[in-house]
Amino acid sequence: MPVDIFNKFAKDYFGLEIIIFTLSFVFCLLPKAIKKVDKLSKIFPILTLASAGFLLAVLLLDFIPHMFPHEHVVLNNTPSKHTHNASQNCCNHTHAHDDHDQAHYNTIVGMVCAGLSLLGLIGIDQCIIKHDHCEESHDEHLHDTHHEHVHHFHSENIQQSNICNELESKDFINQDIGCCNTKMLKNTESKTKALIYIFSISIHSFFEGLAMKKSTFTSYEFGIILHKILESFAIGMTLFNSAFSFLVCLLMNAFYSFLTPLGMFISRYFGSNLFQIGKVPISVIFNGLALGSLMFIVFLEMIPGAFHKKGNKSLKMLGLVLGFVLSASLIVLTGHSH
Q1: How far is 198 from 185, CA to CA, in rounded Å?
Q2: What is the pLDDT of residues 31-84, one digit of tens each?
Q3: How far apart are CA 91 and CA 205, in angstroms?
Q4: Buried b (16+ CB within 10 A) or exposed e, 184-196
Q5: Any stretches that span the bilayer, and where are they (predicted)?
Q6: How far apart are CA 292 and CA 229, in angstroms?
């Protein structure tokens, strides 16, 4: 009964969008009240890996197997389904061969969108976030590091490249907490640039919102909320320790928190099979973008980032495995939901 009430609230009153925005906003604001992060910095990577394990199981057992509709869309927008004869050991397919071709084409389009989403997020991460931050830090630290490293280099170009890489590595490893690279927010006083950084960090949140269902609360939604809470806290820890005023930080927090609900809102009204590009449902494209985003945050953001932090790697691995086992068990016991 409580689940039914929640699902009705989520469907009829934008309940899930409101909940995700509120949780994200509050957890991004929470670091403002925390003075010491020593103990938290030791626990946070383990929590991040547990969340990554949870999302990994969702990705493999729930999202990918069911990311494309089981219905086959035909030209008049009327869905056609497989029918099964209980007295036989085979399926009687009632749809035309063209529907099979269209379903196969939809799958290809979805996977291409997933690949483009993943490549785009990697490009943003490497070219805008990390690389741009390195360029900002280079001039500031070049003089101090020159005398330490000059004997390792044989040319000016090699020297600058190695110093830049070292600074990136130090910023990444010595970061207090977090499952994403947020240090660049501390190194800029430009509000416009900070907003671009926040959008770059969290654009995957928008993609993930595109695949959320308006009427149900599933393992996918739960996993995304877990990740959103951890990422919000990490961004808040850096944002509210930056040079910006409290009001500016609040506005940036609101902007970040709004991205996932925005994706959900778009999916709510345009994610049905009635909306198509050519013959491809918009939902296929949305799911493809979300798949690429999930692959990025699990394999390139959360797992490598948490393991690069200081701490017991065995405990981190245990957290990753436990998160996966818990999520996989829930999915298997409750049945797939997407």
Answers
A1: 8
A2: 888 766 667 778 899 999 999 999 999 999 999 988 765 544 444 444 544 434
A3: 39
A4: bbbbbeeeeebeb
A5: 13-31, 43-64, 103-124, 232-259, 280-303, 315-333
A6: 20
